[in-house]
Amino acid sequence: MNSILSKFLNELSSSRSYTENYTSGNMSKDEALKILGLSSEADQNEINKAYQNLMKLVHPDKGGSEYFAQKLNAARDKLLKR
């Protein structure tokens, strides 16, 4: 799971347009899947499991980043249509 997070963080920090996309609130389903490291066939259980595993790594209360936690929240919400 750490490799998924590392890949996401690297892509996010290396691409200004990628970062602007996420902060604009216009996250696409493909972007949400990429953040959570999931395929388009992922079901609700897989989405929640990936979210929980990644959130354990980036949660601000655990020394992580509020920014990345917000992106995980947005990705989960997009995929679960919240």
From TrEMBL:
Cross-referenced InterPro entries: DnaJ_domain (IPR001623), J_dom_sf (IPR036869)
Q: Which organism is it from?
A: Trichonephila clavata (Joro spider)
Source organism's superkingdom? Eukaryota
User: What keywords is this UniProt entry annotated with?
Assistant: Membrane, Mitochondrion, Mitochondrion inner membrane, Transmembrane, Transmembrane helix
Q: Which SUPFAM superfamilies match?
A: Chaperone J-domain (SSF46565)
Q: Which GO terms describe its cellular component?
A: mitochondrial inner membrane
Record-stated family: Belongs to the TIM14 family.
Where, subcellularly, is it found?
Mitochondrion inner membrane
From the Swiss-Prot or TrEMBL record, give the protein name: Molecular chaperone DnaJ
The answer to whether UniProt assigns keyword Transmembrane to this entry is yes
What is the membrane topology noted in the UniProt record heading this document? Single-pass membrane protein
The protein's matches in PROSITE patterns, at most eight in alphabetical order, are given as:
DNAJ_2 (PS50076)
Which intervals hold domain J? 31-82
